[in-house]
Design goal:
The chain is 79% helix and 0% strand. By secondary structure, the chain is mainly alpha-helical. It is globular, with a radius of gyration of 18 Å. The model has no long low-confidence stretch (mean pLDDT 82).
């Protein structure tokens, strides 16, 4: 099941650009639906799992990040890092001209590297999830697949042809590398919990930044439908 999920993640990056119905203004209702599913996953799965991780940290007599709310602090760092990267990339595009092409290329590779690490982390935690049940894997696969679809659309809009030529292949390879690392490299439990919290904060930012900007002209009803459908799937399984 994990291998099938990894292949699905890769196929989304490799072939999502061929789904021309996603390239629409107002925003494609399918992208808004996918964003709704991702938001539902955050609130129904990520937040409760973060609470469990925080309980684990609190129950251990350890000086490792000995803060009162370590999990949420790490999640805040994840959100802040990706917000900073997003502002950097957008600032580079707003100042783009022929004289600054080198800067634009630097911004592209920085953006791509950050999402390659992000994808590798998602694939790594596919192996080391808090919820190791089959249904938990299914929900993770659904939510992250749709999340990758939304991210891929955003990256294609940002970087155009250079993303089609290089970006999608690198991000797909990062998924495979992250999964293989998860299979063969077991980190300390505290580190895995910290990575999960960092990922949770990153997902929150990356979901909302794709849905909230006014120029996206997102659709509320498909977004709400995505939330409703995923919530029903979770509570009825």
């Amino acid at each position: 099941m994990q291998l099938v999920t990894v292949l699905l993640f890769c196929l989304i990056h490799l072939f999502a650009g061929k789904l021309r119905f996603l390239d629409a203004i107002p925003r494609s209702r399918w992208l808004s639906f996918a964003g709704g599913v991702s938001v539902a996953y955050i609130f129904i799965h990520l937040f409760p799992e973060m609470a469990e991780i925080q309980s684990t940290f609190a129950s251990k007599d350890s000086t490792w990040l000995s803060l009162e709310h370590q999990t949420y602090f790490i999640a805040l760092i994840g959100l802040s890092v990706f917000y900073g990267l997003e502002r950097l990339i957008k600032g580079g595009r707003e100042k783009q001209d022929a004289a600054q092409s080198k800067t634009v290329r630097y911004a592209f590779w920085l953006h791509l590297l950050s999402f390659a690490l992000y994808n590798a982390l998602i694939a790594y935690l596919l192996v080391h999830r808090q919820d190791d049940a089959e249904m938990g894997l299914l929900f993770y696969a659904i939510a992250m697949s749709l999340h990758f679809l939304v991210n891929d659309y955003g990256l294609r809009q940002h970087h155009k042809e250079v993303y089609r030529v290089y970006g999608r292949w690198i991000l797909s390879a990062a998924i495979v590398v992250g999964w293989l690392l998860g299979r063969y490299l077991a980190l300390n439990e505290n580190i895995i919990h910290g990575l999960f919290a960092f990922l949770a904060g990153s997902i929150i930012l990356n979901v909302l930044k794709e849905e909230l900007p006014e120029e996206r002209k997102s659709r509320f009803l498909p977004f709400a439908s995505g939330i409703t459908v995923f919530a029903l799937l979770v509570y009825l399984h």
